[in-house]
Amino acid sequence: MSENNQNDILQADTNLGAYKIIKKIGSGGMGAVYLALDTKLNRNVAIKVLLADFFEDEEKITRFKREATTAASINHANIMSIHAIDEATLDSGQKIEYIVMEYIEGDTLDKYLLSGDNIPKNELLRISEKLASGLAAAHSKGVVHRDIKLGNIIITGEHDPKILDFGLAKPVDTTSFNKQNDSISEDTESVINDLTQEGKIVGTISYMSPEQLRAGQVDFRSDIFSLGVLLYRIFTGRFPFEGTENVSIIAKIIEAPHAPIRTINANLSPELERIINKCLQKDPNNRYQDTRDLVIDLRNIRKQMDSGISDSISGFHEYQQSEKSSSNKSKSLLWTAAAVIVILFALYFADPFAMFDGELSAQENSLAILNFENLSDTEDKDRLGLIMQELLITDLSSNNQIKVVSSQRLFDIQKNLGVDNKNKIDPSVAVEVAKKSGAGTMISGNIINTGSDWLVTGQIIDLNSGNVITSHRLKGPDLYTMVDSLSDVILTNLSITNDPSSQETEQFADE
C-alpha cells in the first residue's frame, strides 16, 4: 500500500520523530488519526495528519495549524489536550505536518447513546453540564468551535465527555457582539441557493445556527445554538429541525420553529425544556448571553436529580422505548394527544417561555443573587454590579450543597414581568423575580469606592418571611478577595460547609 493513498498515509511502525505509529483509528473529511506510542514518555498518543489530497493545499494546511494552536490555548478537563504540532519527512520524501493529541479511549457520543444501555437520567445531565463547561472555557478564551455535534464528542471510560476537533474553530471579538443586528432579514431561498453550491457549507448542517447558515457574524452564541441541538437530540432522540434533504433542513433552521420538546418526550422537566428552548432561539440576542449561565442552569437541575428532589427527566433510550410502546395505543388516545399537541403549540408559539414562568416552590438552600448596586459616581455603574453578581454566582454554584439561580434566568423572569432591563434587576420587582425563580433566599448588596478601598455591603434575605437574616460589611482594596469572604459569610449563615471535597472538581479555565 502506498503512503500517498489517502486511506493509508502512514503504516504501522512508521516513526515520526519520537512517535511510533501503531495503527489507524479514524479519519474525516480533512485528516486521518493514528494511535501512536510516545517513545520518550512511554504513553499512547493520537496523531492527526492531513489527507494526502491536501498535502499541497495551503488553505487546508493553515486551517490544520490553526486547529492545533486554538485547541492548545484552552485548558479544561472536557476538552481534548494538544501536546505538540510538528513536521516530518516520509520515506517517499513527502513532508507532512502533524498534531500530537491526547489519546482518549471511548465512544463518540452518538455511539454512546445508541449503546443499548439505559443511561441514567442524571448521567445525561452530568454529561450535558460538562460539555457546556468545556464550551464556556473555550468561549472565555475567545474561541468559537463552530462544529459542535455528537460525532465530535468522545465519552471516556469514566463517562466523561471530551470535545474534539477544533478544525473549524475561530477566535472572535467578544466585546461587541451585542451591538450587531441579528434579525433574520435575508431571503431564505437565496441563502439556500448560495449554501447548496459546492464547497459553500463548512460544518454539519443539522447543528448549524441560523446566522452560521446565513454566513453572518458568528460568535459564541452560535455554539450555544449547536449545543441546544445536541441537547434536544440527547433528550428526545430526534433533531429539532428534520428534513429529507439539506434544503429543507436549512429552511427550517432559518425560519421554522422547532417542535415543543414535551410533545415528543412528555417526561422532560419544564426547566430543562426552558433551557433547551433558550439555546435554540433564532435571534442570538434571545439565547444565553454567557455560556457560564447555561452551565449553572444545567448544574442546578443535575443537583436536584442527585438529591432526589426531581426525577422528571428522561433521556434518549426512554424516549425510544416509549415511542415503540406508543404505537400500540388506541386511536382515541391518539386523537386526544393530537388535541393536546395543538394546545401546546398554541401556547408555546404565543410565548415560548410563558409556559415555564409560574412561581416555583421555594427550595432549601436555593439562592437568587441580584446584581450589586454601585453607589460610586463612575461611568458604566451597572457593569461593576453585574461583575460582582457573576463572581458570587460562579463562586457559590460550585458548592454541591446549594442551588444558585443563574443571572440569565433572573433577567428572563424580569422580562416576562414587563421590565426589559438587561443591566440590573429592578428593585421594584426583585423579590417577585427571586420567588418566581424558586429561590428560598435572596442576596443583594451595594458597593462603593472610597478611594484606595472598596466598601461592600451584602444582605441575606429569607424570601418566605421577608426578613433580613444578616447584613455584612467588608472593606478592602481587592474585590475578588472580598467576594471570597462574602461567599464564606453566606455559606456560614446557611449552615453550609465550604469544604473543597463538597465542591465541583471541574472549573472554568479562567477561574
Describe the structure.
The strands form four sheets. Strands 1-2-3-4-6-5 form a six-stranded antiparallel beta sheet, covered by helices on one side. Strand 2 and strand 3 form a beta hairpin. The N terminus and C terminus are likely disordered. Helices cover about 35% and strands about 20% of the residues. It has 15 helices and 17 strands. The longest helix is centred in the first third of the chain and has 20 residues. The relative contact order is 0.08. The chain is of the alpha+beta class. The chain folds into three domains: about 90 residues, Phosphorylase Kinase, domain 1 (2-Layer Sandwich); about 240 residues, Transferase(Phosphotransferase) domain 1 (Transferase(Phosphotransferase), domain 1, Orthogonal Bundle); about 140 residues, Rossmann fold, CATH 3.40.50.10610.
How do you describe this structure in short?
By secondary structure, the protein is α+β, with helices and mostly antiparallel strands.
Distance between the termini: 50 Å
Instruction: Identify the CATH class of the largest domain.
Output: Mainly Alpha
Stretches where pLDDT is under 50 for at least 5 consecutive residues are: 1-6, 175-186, 191-201, 322-357, 500-511
Could you tell me the radius of gyration in angstroms? 25 Å
> How much helix, percentage-wise, in residues?
25-40%
**Largest sheet: number of strands, sense, barrel closure:** 6 strands, antiparallel
Mean pLDDT over the residues: 79
Approximate strand percentage: 15-25%
The largest sheet has its strands arranged as 1-2-3-4-6-5
Shape: globular
Secondary structure tally, helices: 15
Number of strands: 17
Q: Please name the fourth-level CATH homologous superfamily of the largest domain.
A: Transferase(Phosphotransferase) domain 1
Based on helices, strands and strand pairing, what is the structural class? Answer: alpha+beta
* Tally of discrete structural domains: 3
CATH-assigned fold name of the largest domain = Transferase(Phosphotransferase), domain 1
CATH second-level architecture of the largest domain:
Orthogonal Bundle
